[in-house]
Design goal:
The chain has 391 residues and is mainly alpha-helical. The chain is built from 18 helices and 4 strands. The protein is 59% helix and 2% strand. The protein has a two-stranded antiparallel ribbon. A two-stranded antiparallel sheet has the order 3-4.
């Protein structure tokens, strides 16, 4: 316990020392875009709603259009995790115990209360990421029950498979596993948020290098396999389309990972290279209102909020950490944040969020994806941005 407390203090001091001086572009926001007000509005909206595995906040018309809820799952799904993590971080940064307490109480019901049935089975990249929630809570209250579950999810993501489990891997998954990668590896770009955020959180609370080294190695392989010469990512190798939110997961994942990856880590230069290349190209595709579009290199595609939020978070974090030029990226991040806030309605719900999207080599498929309101894919990045602006 003393070791963990010492490590938590060391991490806190590191971030305190690494923060840049006051950044003018991140202050004096116009009405409706103050990060404290916006963060509170969206975080409290999260608390008002039930778990999203039923999609019960959607209108009946939206449910019919999206067809997402015919078979609701019986566990916490990853968009909840991403929004919950954002709300917890925001509450801690703004020292709001009145917000933090109900967020923790909600998690306690799942971790050791009467909602334990909602803990996902740790057998998939999108399930294991649930571990971020108990790890973030442990970093704030030091309740070992949260630590144990969070580390279980992180370790299961990189467990050594037995013979029966190995026999279920196909040839390409076996190659990745034999390289020392997670058995969750599948070369989908959103993995590089789901895997790296969990391992980074485990590193943050324990100081054990195995966690951050796993994440760094995994990210390098994904970059080498999937990043294109312009720094962006196709949705899949057989889908040569620069889908917005898919790229957003990579941008946010690299920013989160680099914030924890030690300067001496052998994989840091490659990841920083991939991150900066992506940021430079994203700058070119930001529109005059600060938004990015459903298909990044198509200015006629509709402006989409979840991807924009993820890119804004990556910009804000890069400027704050000193990785990106302040005079270039801070104004772009400010414009993105203000633009995003104009899409938040009076209820605290973000509009123009692309629904969950599987890969398909069909341009019109992406252009015609339904736009929904309040989906946690879009709520979460608002909270990440608010927290990053205030750190």
């Amino acid at each position: 316990m003393l070791k963990q407390l010492f490590w938590a203090l060391s991490i806190s001091l590191f971030f305190a020392c690494s923060r840049s001086a006051s950044i003018a572009a991140f202050e004096n926001f116009p009405e409706g875009s103050d990060p404290v007000d916006v963060g509170n509005k969206v975080a409290r909206r999260f608390l008002e709603r039930p778990h999203s595995n039923t999609g019960s906040w959607y209108s009946e018309e939206q449910k019919k259009d999206t067809n997402l809820f015919n078979n609701p799952v019986g566990y916490i799904v990853y968009p909840d995790v991403c929004a919950w993590y954002g709300a917890l971080s925001f509450a801690a940064t703004t020292h709001q115990q009145s917000l933090l307490d109900p967020l923790i109480s909600r998690a306690a019901k799942v971790v050791y209360g009467d909602e334990r049935r909602l803990i996902p089975v740790a057998n998939h990249v999108d399930n294991n990421v649930f571990g971020v929630i108990p790890l973030e809570i442990y970093s704030q209250n030091k309740d070992k029950r949260f630590l144990d579950l969070g580390l279980y999810m992180a370790d299961e993501q990189f467990k050594i498979l037995n013979e029966e489990e190995l026999s279920k891997l196909d040839s390409i998954h076996r190659v990745w596993y034999d390289m020392g990668l997670s058995w969750n590896t599948r070369m989908w770009i959103d993995d590089m948020y789901m895997i790296t955020i969990l391992q980074a959180q485990a590193y943050k609370v324990t100081g054990e290098k195995k966690y951050i080294e796993r994440a760094g190695k995994e990210m390098v392989v994904y970059l080498d396999e999937l990043q294109k010469s312009n720094g962006l990512f196709h949705h899949a190798d057989d889908v040569p389309i620069y889908w917005g939110r898919g790229n957003g997961w990579m941008a946010a994942g690299m920013a989160e990972l680099l914030a924890y990856l030690p300067e001496t880590d052998e994989n840091r230069p490659r990841i920083m290279e991939g991150y900066k290349k992506m940021m430079a190209t994203l700058l070119k595709y930001q529109d005059e209102n600060g938004m990015w579009h459903q298909i990044l290199d198509d200015s006629d595609a509709w402006a989409e909020t979840s991807g924009t939020g993820m890119f804004a978070f990556a910009f804000i974090t890069g400027v704050k950490q000193g990785w990106l030029e302040e005079d270039v990226y801070a104004p772009a991040a400010r414009k993105a944040w203000i633009g995003l806030c104009s899409y938040i309605n009076s209820d605290g719900d973000v509009t123009d969020i692309c629904i969950g999207t599987n890969k398909r080599n069909d341009y019109q498929y992406y252009l015609k994806r339904a736009r929904v309101v309040g989906d946690l894919h879009g709520q979460a990045p608002i909270l990440w941005c608010a927290n990053a602006l205030l750190k």
